[in-house]
Amino acid sequence: MGQGGALTKARAIPFNVLTQLKCLNCGSIHTRPHKEGDYIFSNIEEKCPNCGGIAHMITAIYIEEQKKQGPR
After folding, report:
1. Are 17 and 35 in contact, with CB atoms under 8 Å apart?
2. Residue scoring higher pLDDT (21 or 67)
3. Which of 37, 55, 58, 63 could bridge 24 with an S-S bond, Cβ 3.0-4.6 Å?
4. From the centroid of its chain, how far is CA 55?
5. pLDDT confidence of residue 9
6. Tell me, what DSSP letter sits at residue 4?
7. Which long-range contacts (CB under 8 A, 24 or more apart) does 7-13 make?
8. What is the pLDDT of residues 18-66, one digit of tens each?
9. What is the pLDDT of residue 55?
10. Collapsing DSSP states into helix, strand and coil, what is residue 32?
11. pLDDT at site 8
């Protein structure tokens, strides 16, 4: 096979899956690492870091690319 058919290795891009939560008590929005079973618009019970309330709604689930480390 010539160079045109050579295979190259794909580099894995590191990323984080995050879940965005909205407190139904104070309205604050915060994120945390995604947990299995999370889905958008579900109501969950987790302590709010702002007011201490426990009622939240998941408003978004998204991927955040990790920053690449520079050469050392």
Report:
1. no
2. 21
3. 55
4. 20
5. 72
6. G
7. 13/65
8. 999 999 999 999 999 999 999 999 999 999 999 999 999 999 999 987 7
9. 96
10. strand
11. 72
Q: In what order do the strands lie in the sheet with 15-23?
A: 29-33, 15-23, 55-65, 43-45
* β-bridge pairing 29-33 and 15-23: antiparallel
Torsion angle of the four alpha carbons 63, 67, 68, 70, in this order, in degrees rounded to the nearest 10: 180
Whether the Cβ atoms of residue 28 and residue 51 lie closer than 8 Å to each other: yes
Strand 29-33 and strand 55-65: the pairing is unpaired
Specify the amino acid at residue 6: A
Do residues 20 and 56 lie in contact, with contact meaning Cβ atoms separated by under 8 Å?
Answer: no
Model pLDDT, residue 48? 95
